[in-house]
Amino acid sequence: MVISLRLTGDPAEIPGALDALESWLGAAGLSAEDLGEWRLLAEEVLTNIVHHGSPPRCDEAIRIDGLRSGDGVELRVADRGRPFDPCAAAPPDLSAPPEERCGGGLGVHLMRSLADEMAYAYRDGRNILTLRKSSPSASCSQGQAQPEVATDDPL
User: Is the pTM for the entire model greater than 0.85?
Assistant: First the structure.
């Protein structure tokens, strides 16, 4: 089972994309708990891209490709925003009181917590973030094998 979504980078498109993703995952037989985690994960990724990455507004500023296979779900999100590797981002200091913490970083922490695997690459002017949920162990590495992006891909 696969899904492919294209967004222009308009924040108003996020709820519709999340609904489409949730419908696809539901049709693939995921549990209500997994649906909620994937929706939160995708919402965090898309919100960060739109509000912090500043992708140019165009027909395919953001591309989401998902694959459901027997051992889990893989979601690849590509965008033309500023390069940002969430795998290289420093973890937030959760031991400090909230008022003493530096701003930011909690969204990436949430993504790391929800995904079993998270990989990043920057190719051909695109951020490519691949998220996978299938096992209880989490890892984050740069340069893991990812679906190829065709050179004629308009994104």
Answer: no
